[in-house]
Design a protein that fits this description.
heterodimer, A: mainly alpha, about 80% helix, globular, B: alpha/beta, 6-stranded mixed sheet, 4-stranded antiparallel sheet, about 35% helix, elongated
Chain lengths: ~240, ~400
């Protein structure tokens, strides 16, 4: 059997072996619905779409995804199982990918469980289900990018709390990259080109069009590259830090 | 069988051929050994008093289709070197953990890795197991370079990391299944391999329990079971008995002895009695360097207690006088606590018979008289704390 799949299956199963998975899913469902109805005013808008639902995903992921990713590698390092895992006949890539995919699949499960909202809007009106599907795909892609960042930071420390906080901070900077909060720190000294480059890294900008159902190849490429880059960084960090 | 030239030919063009031939060789080896490992025979720890002699495994009554590789420092010319390191080194910044270690382990050897804490034992084992990359030198397992062919090398090794880490939330069965999957154990062998590992370690009773709820002894056994689930040719065990109670230690040693019949094993330890119990070769390392490489008996022979005679007598003074008169006695010590007298021979001499005669002649009543084999702990201290160069000589 493919080692990537074996790692994936073990990892995914381990989420459900502890209450963490259920706590996470319940909180995700409660918060996403609360945001949709109370902050997004799903009913009051009088439109049959899920835009109020997807708009809040970056903010929801900002805190919930690091909670999933924080244990990815720091737990392996703390318990010493990383030594066991990496002396099995598995390449670093297979291990990194297997664990990442498991965490991603876990978030996908949580995302799928929001289907009652989709049923609700379909019951209340006739939404464009293509747009909704595209938004789901985009949301999942963005979650993957958050996760890949978390995977890399989790590999750098054996303390899960540190991994959580650092991941939140890095993700926050990336989410806000297109806004003055982050850009002002660069605008004072950096050339305009760099400022624009930073601005174009913003999760919000890339997610904004996706959440409206517009699937732009550039946005997909952005999240795909983001995932690849951070996973590659994870592999390097694990290699560097596994000795201590 | 491969000629030494073929074995040692890492020339690119020949590599494929050589690797193919080695694989075939493994096939043959595995074939012969499999029938043995399946017999699931528990052999009580076999101790050989000397450093040589044929293994007792060929005794009648024990199933052994053909005589097994000798256990005692005997090099089988035709068989391949199982583990080979060449000037293996590991540096962390300015700190040298392992400083150019070179050794070979032949099939059937059980090599004890001794050394004080922080000597570089674990680091060396981690490099051989493929967890850490060496900063200098190379290591080969069954002919596979751990850096050039990491997957091949990892496949033939069973490794028990220090402290026997495992995924606590998994049950023993799930964990062993996971390892079998990762190791790619063939479907037709899988059931048998798992059953074999489980029964060897007596894990039947805890199969469905989460590992984190198990006692330390059981966790160690789970760690050993995962190391042997793919029937590896080479076993690397990092402190397998550390922190276990005497009964558990005995069990683990029995197991290592049983497995030593068809595997090449490296065991690290800082418990010296273990060397006697399981190893037929010992390497003492300290500060990252090999200070001694010999059989346990040879190491003991370096002890000043080697061939010494100790006794306890009713009349200590008379006994002492009688011993002093024996020609080859170099020194006499009396233990201040229990009044036990130890007579040390002059180098290379044997004094037991002479001492016995002298005591008889003087009609000294002896409660007990013993010939000392040598004390490993004393040798260990001398070698690791004393002058390294002298010890190496």
């Amino acid at each position: 059997m493919n080692p990537t799949f074996t790692v994936f299956r073990r990892e995914l199963r381990s989420y459900f072996a502890t209450p963490v998975a259920y706590v996470f899913i319940v909180i995700f469902l409660v918060l996403s619905s609360a945001f949709t109805f109370y902050l997004g005013n799903l009913y009051e808008r009088g439109q049959a779409d899920l835009l109020p639902f997807f708009t809040f995903h970056p903010w929801l992921y900002l805190f919930l995804v690091p909670a999933v990713s924080m244990r990815l590698w720091s737990e392996e390092r703390k318990s010493g199982t990383i030594e066991l895992l990496l002396t099995l006949p598995v390449t670093m890539w297979q291990a990194v990918l297997g664990k990442f995919l498991a965490a991603w699949a876990f978030i996908a499960i949580a995302l799928v469980l929001t289907f009652p909202l989709w049923i609700t809007v379909n019951y209340l009106g006739t939404p464009d289900n293509g747009v909704i599907l595209a938004s789901y795909v985009g949301s999942l892609l963005m979650a993957g990018a958050f996760l890949a960042i978390g995977s890399c930071i989790s590999a750098a420390t054996r303390n899960q709390v540190v991994a959580f906080i650092l991941t939140v901070v890095v993700c926050f900077v990336l989410v806000m990259a297109g806004f003055p909060l982050v850009l002002d720190a660069f605008a004072a000294w950096a050339p305009q080109g760099l400022v624009d480059a930073v601005a174009s890294l913003s999760f919000l900008t890339h997610f904004a069009s996706i959440s409206k159902g517009v699937i732009d190849l550039r946005d997909i490429l952005y999240f795909g590259l983001m995932i690849a880059f951070w996973l590659y960084a994870s592999a390097i960090v694990i290699d560097l830090k596994k000795a201590d | 069988m491969l000629s030494p030239e073929e074995e040692a030919s890492p020339v690119n063009g020949l590599r494929g051929v050589a690797v193919g031939a080695l694989r075939e060789l493994f096939g043959v080896l595995c074939g012969t050994f499999r029938s043995r490992s399946q017999s699931r025979l528990f052999v009580p720890p076999v101790r050989f008093p000397g450093g040589d002699g044929m293994p007792a495994i060929c005794k009648p009554g024990l199933i052994a289709p053909r005589c097994l590789p000798p256990r005692h420092g005997f090099v089988n010319q035709g068989e391949q070197t199982m583990i080979e390191t060449h000037a293996l080194g590991k540096r962390y910044g300015g700190f040298t953990a392992v400083d150019g270690i070179t050794f070979k382990v032949e099939p059937g050897q059980v090599l004890g890795f001794l050394g004080p804490n922080g000597a570089g034992k674990s680091t060396t084992m981690k490099m051989i197991a493929g967890f850490l990359a060496p900063t200098s030198g190379s290591a080969k397992v069954c002919g596979f370079d751990v850096e050039q062919q990491p997957l091949d090398a990892k496949r033939v090794v069973g490794y028990l990391p220090e402290g026997a880490p495992s995924y606590g939330e998994m049950s023993v069965r799930q964990f062993l299944d996971f390892i079998a999957d990762m190791r790619g154990v063939a479907a037709d062998l899988r059931r048998r391999r798992l059953d074999d590992a489980i029964s060897r370690l007596n894990l039947e009773g805890v199969l469905e329990q989460p590992i984190e709820t198990l006692s330390k002894g059981f966790r160690r056994r789970v760690g050993l079971a995962q190391a042997i689930v793919h029937d590896p040719k080479v076993l690397i065990l990092d402190e397998p008995t550390d922190g276990l109670d005497p009964n558990q230690k005995h069990e683990v040693r029995t197991l290592i002895n049983a497995m030593s019949r068809d595997k090449t094993i490296i065991v690290s330890t800082h418990v010296l009695e273990e060397v006697h119990a399981v190893c037929n070769r010992a390497i003492i390392i300290a500060r990252g360097k090999i200070l001694a490489d010999a059989t346990p008996a040879e190491l003991e022979a370096r002890s000043r207690y080697h061939q010494a005679v100790s006794l306890s007598a009713a009349n200590v003074e008379a006994a002492r006088a009688a011993l002093a008169a024996v020609a080859d006695v170099a020194a006499i010590e009396v233990d201040a606590q229990d009044q036990r007298i130890t007579a040390f021979p002059k180098p290379g001499r044997q004094i037991f018979a002479a001492v016995n005669e002298a005591l008889k002649a003087k009609e000294i009543v002896v409660r007990e008289l013993a010939l000392e084999g040598g004390r490993l702990d004393e040798v260990f201290r001398t070698i690791t704390e004393g002058n390294a160069e002298e010890a190496r000589a």
